[in-house]
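The methods section describes the discrete structure representation at length, but only in general terms. Each protein is reduced to its one-letter sequence and a matching series of backbone shape codes. I believe one specimen quoted in the main text would settle the matter. An entry of this sort, consisting of the sequence and the corresponding backbone structure tokens, reads as follows.
***
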Amino acid sequence: MSAPEELFEASPVTGRMEWDLQGEGERCIVFLNGLGMDRLVWHGKWVPAMLEQGFRTLTCNYARLEPGQANNDCQVDDLVEQVRALLVQLRLRNPILVGTSLGAFVAQELAARMPVEALVLLATYLEPGALQNALMQAEWAILAGELPVPVNYMILMDLLQGCTAAQLQDEAQFSRLFTGFARSVDYKDCTRRAHYRASMHYKADRPALANIKAPTLVVGFEQDVLMPPGLCREVAALIPGARYQELRAAGHYACATQAQALVGMMAEFLLGPRNPENA
């Protein structure tokens, strides 16, 4: 069944969730967004491809806050518990978790706390390095209103950090990306600030991740400066039996710009020998 735009009330820190459940299959994929992303990013290629393969899909916007709500204390643990509560409400057991960036943090911590069928982590880390810390501190100062900066500048900084040089030098693609950000990203949105706050404080629970039992695929993006492949490999090395793959010529926004290639990686991983029908 599909239940688009449903709301799930949560704590004042994490706000409310919008979610969409589609498909009739027994295996359910839960897509978890990156920082500031809307769940609809998954609906372009990811959701249709997985529905065609017979999966159910769940997308959600966690930490949906209203203006004036306190969000300075938002942590990844808050988002983890909110997603887990939604899964319980929907009676979704042993889901497949797919997360990118902040969503990967949520996915890997959630997989350490509840049974999941499989785990796919795109652009993740155990804790930020010096570059990541510096970027988040600087951008938090902007988002918190300490440093007023034109929106066009913020968009350019996001594209420079998240796209490859080839994508930025392609004038048609750059124009599409810039226009898309201008239409969809609100840099004053309290939800975006909450996501930043959660990311800034995140350090993985290493002993818990080392006990994850689910088959795991970790994907790094070759040209990702925000969550470089070396940090992704550390996650794969910690989770027992995890497989690491790297998407070539890809930046941090590969989930949107190179979705087809990533969907292929994920489908091969999920439809491999672990599936009795294909064994």
